[in-house]
Amino acid sequence: MPQSSADMPDFDAAEDVAQRRADEALIVDVEGYEGPLDLLLTMARSQKVDLMTISVLELAEQYLRFVEKARKLRIELAADYLVMAAWLAFLKSRLLLPPDPEADGPTAEDMAGHLAFQLERLSAMRQAAAQLMARDRLGIDRFARGAPDTIARSRRTEYKAGLIDLMRAYARLKTRDEFRPYAFDRKDVFTMEQALDRLRKMIGFAGEWTDLSVFLPQGWEADGQRRRSATAATFAASLELARQGRLEIRQGESFSPISYRQTTHEP
Amino acid sequence: MSHDFPPPSLDQQERMVEAILFASAVPVTMRDLTARMPDGCDPAEALAALRRRYDGRGVTVEHLGDGYAFRTAPDLAFLMQEQTVESRRLSRAAIETLAIIAYHQPVTRAEIEEIRGVAVSRGTLDQLIEMEWVRMGRRRMSPGRPATFVVTDGFLDHFGLETSRDLPGLSELRAAGLLDSRPPAEGLAMPLAGRGEDDDIEHVDPPEDLFKDT
Amino acid sequence: MSHDFPPPSLDQQERMVEAILFASAVPVTMRDLTARMPDGCDPAEALAALRRRYDGRGVTVEHLGDGYAFRTAPDLAFLMQEQTVESRRLSRAAIETLAIIAYHQPVTRAEIEEIRGVAVSRGTLDQLIEMEWVRMGRRRMSPGRPATFVVTDGFLDHFGLETSRDLPGLSELRAAGLLDSRPPAEGLAMPLAGRGEDDDIEHVDPPEDLFKDT
Known about the structure:
A: elongated
């Protein structure tokens, strides 16, 4: 990776072959960067100043030139590099324009300051990581007992369960409900057999036209679901008895009440 | 033989033998010591000094086969015992009961039985209480004033939960593949007899799925 | 409290601590020491005496996280080629992520991403968790209740740290304000695109690896 000079990512100055090759190397290596912030940090270092005092404007221009050059060379840049370019272009225009006293939100200086902070923080974390890895590490610089004693163990049973077990158990219970074979709760269902039984016994007393609702069993008239079930079963049973010639059915017009009476002549 | 550097001091050599014996998984032979220590060392002398140093200590340098190793002093063998814990999986009944208590607490025994569809043995609840994962909560203000059960802080601790609200909801279980079912089609769902409130798991909405990328 | 026997002498207690620490490959906590030694012992004092005794030796007593362990002196690492275990090479992303977790803990995934400027791939955190250097901490009490990550005692042991306050350069970083969890103000945040797309564990060899795992 070219680290040659301050204008390292500056393609405008690149005329001689060596410089051009360095540029191309940079482009090809973009994949080696951990995202635009990483690339920006490398560029910022080329300013060779304290990160807190870098010229963010210069940095933005450097980055934008880099993106422009990549475009000329028809190098496809990942989306986040382009998003960063758009953000930096916006920041650059804000930095160049006189501040708008009416504008809400952070000033261009705030934005630039935050970018400088982020670069410094990332740089500090890299340094911290390097310091960490340089410590005397177990298994590399320091070693544990190679032959730890086996310790005689007296037993105590401890029951173990993890969150996954717990959730699986609960999932099992819940899915059992979902997959229960489809079956009616018979409590609220009046069956056709029951209706036939009842209608056979009652129809003998129906010499006159008698409304269907009279034949409904007690306690089934009030509740909607029970009434519908009993009505349907009674009507179905009445069709069966009519087929057998035991009763007659009458309905004045569509949706008007249905009434029954015993067949007057024996079949 | 000529050396660029003088050999380390005997003290330093003793430290070296000490570290090598300590870190080795098997007894170290005199040949190994010679091979590993810098030129010009006298491992035999360093080892003899080290053995004297550890004489009477809690660990001693012993000659085992043709090698040397640290060993616990025989009179301290009694310290090398540890009460161990044999882990055993919870029974299915226990884990299911625990799950129901965690998701529905405070919950009565009758309610647990309703959800599980089978009777809960006294032993199962006793076991969970003895493990200090479950305790009795307030009595329910309903006829018979039945006792309720709730999970303990020890439970939350063991399962790495901050509150029982952090338990993932059913939709999350499903997303995690723990529930590979689809809900029954609209309109086919059986009305859950009686207790509407036991559906509340659906509404507990822990913000972050435990199973997503961590 | 009454004992059938007087407690062992301090010398004897020191031998006991020595034997127990020697016997274990992982750090032993004060609680374990107390549990394993006879009643009436003062493990803390015995341990202090032991640490003094081993000061400057080839193995020394280190305070690592919650526990204590003998470890070979770092200056003798050159003798230990045979013991060195070829550890899995960590990617630059993994090392940076580890450092960020250590210095900023408890830290959320979003905060790690903010600091690094790229999405954290799933593999990176998985690897650190698998190595038992990182674990999930408490959920953050902020909208979404995101999970946080913290380093483990295993991390402290590996890097020879007594507590995470002993991280190198920690106080300087703090004084410089570089550890403030400073959420970017509205409109200040830089864009983070392509979340989750870069599987950074894949490119184990970034062109410039500042952080070679030696």
